[in-house]
Amino acid sequence: MKPNEKLHPTFRRTPYRLHTSYYWYYLKILALVSSQLEPMQNNCIYLDNNATTKVDPEVVEAMLPYLTEYYGNPSSMHTFGGQLAKAVKIAREQLAALLGADESEIVYTSCGTEGDNAAIRAALLAQPDKRHIITTQVEHPAVLNVCKQLETQGYSVTYLSVNRQGQLDLNELEASLTGNTALVTTMYANNETGVVFPIEQIGLRAKEYGALFHVDAVQAVGKIPLNMKNSTVDMLTLSGHKIHAPKGIGALYVRRGVRFRPFLIGGHQERGRRAGTENVPGIIALGKAAELELLHLEEATKRESRLRDRLEKTLLATIPDCEVNGDITQRLPNTTNIGFKYIEGEAILLSLNKYGICASSGSACTSGSLEPSHVLRAMGLPYTTLHGSIRFSLCRYTTEAEIDRVIAVMPEIVERLRALSPFKNDEAGWLQAQEQTLAHR
Amino acid sequence: MWDYTDKVLELFYNPKNQGAIEEADESGVKVATGEVGSIACGDALRLHLKVEVASDKILDARFQTFGCTSAIASSSALTEMIKGLTLDEALNVSNKDIADYLGGLPEAKMHCSVMGQEALEAAIYNYRGIPLTAHDDDDEGALICSCFGISESKIRRVILENNLTDAEQVTNYVKAGGGCGSCLANIDDIIKDVQQQAATPAIDNYSVKVATDIATAKQSQRPLTNVQKIALIQKVLDEEVRPVLIADGGDVELYDVDGDRVKVLLQGACGSCSSSTATLKIAIEARLQDRVSKNLIVEAVEP
Ligand code: FES
Q1: Which residue out of B63, B65, B66, B171 would a mutagenesis test of the A interface target, given it has the greatest number of A Cβ atoms within 10 Å?
Q2: How close, in Å, is residue B178 to chain A by CA atoms?
Q3: Which positions in chain B touch A364 (Cβ < 8 Å)?
Q4: What is the rounded CA–CA span in Å between residue A43 and residue A82?
Q5: B110-128 and B167-174 helices cross at what angle (nearest 10)?
Q6: Three-class DSSP category at B234
Q7: Is B177 in the pocket of ligand 1 (CB under 6 A)?
Q8: Rounded CA gap, B76 and B112, in Å?
Q9: pLDDT, tens only, A167-186
Q10: Residue A138: pLDDT above 90?
Q11: What is the C-alpha to C-alpha distance for residues A115 and B17, in angstroms, rounded to an integer?
């Protein structure tokens, strides 16, 4: 149907014709804004896929009609909107298939942060007399900061520690659980190091104490096979833009039977579990992205881990004084986090940027905050390594040639920055004195 | 991604004057070194100056920096700026001058320029044999930010020198407050205090009156009345003693005057500082004896 055709004449009038002068201003402003934007760097070597991913062209193609011709509201009674409900249902099935879940267990959200917030609040609202939460020191701020806020509201929170490899101690978890524990919330895989937690074992222990179990799987979905069927997970968060869907769409898996209190309250969308008009183009995109992830999962995982390992091994072999941060046996196939001693992360990133290489660092200088990564600190890394840690995260588009390029430029970058550093070749002097005083703190 | 000026990027990619200056046995030339920052904070700078002893001129300057883009660019800029200056001229280089040389730094990176200025001071003080703590009190002043080990005196100084008005700016300039954030309220208090002091004119009408009273008393060779003596002590403390102490993160308050015994309350860095007796005797008592009466004895009372 051509949308405008059957509408009442009032709706057919375009605002442009009514207000030609406004339109002129609109164009002016648009021109002004775009003239201030710098030209985008398009042919970069993108190794920052744990931050976000490129939208798959097939995903764009799938969602596009829902931005143009099929713009109806799926909750509407008329066919124009109502027909969209069918498309949304198919997308829901596609996503459920990736998780090994049932379509009815999917609640769409706007992002990973919303999923985490909703899950934690829902778990607490459903068990009003339990006042204890267990999480870890290395969670994403979307979990950590919610927990910190809950502490000010009378909840007690246990933040489980991690060892030098970034791994949890299950005995510590066991010792922290009580009958008062409402929720255990941990990540599946760490965004900075890629370290994967033993989710099922955590869940088993949580169940023994009658606690709900939420998993922030934003980094794990699409990178490791998931099956919620026989899992101990009650709720699981994912985000679209980490799996080649656009930003602004995510989902929360809620196991059937888990009592769920909505975070966003309003209309009856998502079976009353999340109010707000559905982000139809986003939902369609996420469905398509999930379908593609499932299709590529096995072969992409193999390829990525092979490329990642080559990158890692070669860098370690060609650059002295560097080490991998995190558990290398229990790790995502696409992530490596390497600490280059005596130099600082932002300086490395900017140098890489000159070659069009995008990576990420755990250094404070790249973020708004001044403290280095809480994850690497919780692992107890020495300061010599901590500030110079770089994360390379791959995806199924990463090529051999791109990895070669990084391998080629990194040694020179590190050498240049080390030549500037007062700490390199100073093990007996200033640096040693500093590490010693720090150890006494 | 930070928005760096072309000058910052130029000096980052092609830094000038990197490296160390080795002490060579050249006659009439000495090498001075200044170190600031720490690996824990993620910024550190070691500055080397080659000084011509006779003229006090900086013949060469080199740097070694651990830090981000702007730390490297700031250090390189600093070495370019001070070459050829005398040490006294170099001491006038402020962190603002460094930032200006670079065409500006992102606000959140201003601490890199502060580090440059501090290293310069450290090198010059080292060269002159002045213990840095006596000047800066960074280790002695009350510790405000334990995450980054920043003292009250350092915070006061950066507020004054850069006209800072909120805690976020202080964080950008010296990092204090950028960790757990528990010191932010204290930083707010310090800002308020500095602003209040700036707003109080140094000599108000009251002290003008005191001054005339004292002048007439002296002319007529009459001894000071008790009221005049107390007023004079207060005036000397306010105008000559307190500004010095405040700059170092301390303060003093007149508690009582009992005959020739002047009782004061030492505050801030002065109260906790190990050299507080020295402060009492040198800075306060000697000054009051000189200005008011030879017989005065200054004592500190416990707050
Ligand atoms: S004490 Fe200042 S930020 Fe933590």
Answers
A1: B66
A2: 5
A3: 42, 178
A4: 41
A5: 50
A6: helix
A7: yes
A8: 11
A9: 999 999 999 999 999 999 99
A10: yes
A11: 51
